Amino acid sequence: MQNPRWSTINLSEFKIIFVAIGLVGVLLIASPAIASFVQLPGGERFSELYILGPQHTASGYPSALKVGEPTPTLFVGVTNDMGSSQLYSLSFKLANRTDPLPDQTTGSPSPIQQLFNYRMALVDNATKEYPLLFEIANASSSPSQATLSTFKVNDMSFNINKPALISNDTSSAFYYRFIVELWIYNSETQLFEYNNRFVYLQLQLDTS
Predict the structure, then answer these.
(1) In the chain, how long is the greatest CA-to-CA distance?
(2) CA–CA distance, 208 with 203 (Å, rounded to integer)
(3) Which pTM was predicted?
(4) pLDDT tens digits, residue range 22-38?
(5) Which helix (H) or strand (E) holds 158?
(6) CB 62 within 8 A of CB 73
(7) What value does the CA radius of gyration of the chain take, rounded to a whole number of Å?
(8) Are the beta carbons of 151 and 161 closer than 8 angstroms?
(9) What are the structural domains, with CATH classification, of the chain?
(10) Distance between terminal CA atoms of the chain?
(11) Residue 49 belongs to what H/E stretch?
(12) pLDDT tens digits, one per residue of 37-91
């Protein structure tokens, strides 16, 4: 069985991308505001992953979502400080509050099934952002449980039928977590491997 921390890739997908980035890489360097940042000591090589709000700042994130009302456009960004060109894959997942998040101690991704992934190639010191617009397209609820049936991301629809219980005894809110994991390509194994970087947004289903 394939290791769940890895995924395969056809390198031919990135040949043209690398040529283009090699020619214009100096134009791709950016310094956005960071919503999730990890600083490693001693000049150690690392990658950054973050989510920004509609104004490219660490604010304006959606909280309570009503069925059929899309969020403002958010931005998921990756910065390559690895010292060389890298191939990245963003894995997008939707969890309820009982689903496990990625485990930073073991360096393992969340075991829940991904909705989709997005791959990008970056030269060293470059940043790239991927716009996100999502919507709860179909959901139902009762006093004790809600079920998110259809979730849309960038006009892609996913039938997930994900239940959620009320958050505690004094609240009638139903919460989900939109998770983004960072995976990086290992040229030796020729596989994408989880990079122990993730961010998530907590979303409340508004049933009013």
Answers:
(1) 58
(2) 15
(3) 0.78
(4) 323 222 222 233 334 44
(5) strand 156-168
(6) no
(7) 18
(8) no
(9) 6-206 (2.60.40.3880)
(10) 45
(11) strand 46-52
(12) 444 444 678 899 999 999 999 999 987 899 999 999 999 999 999 999 999 999 9
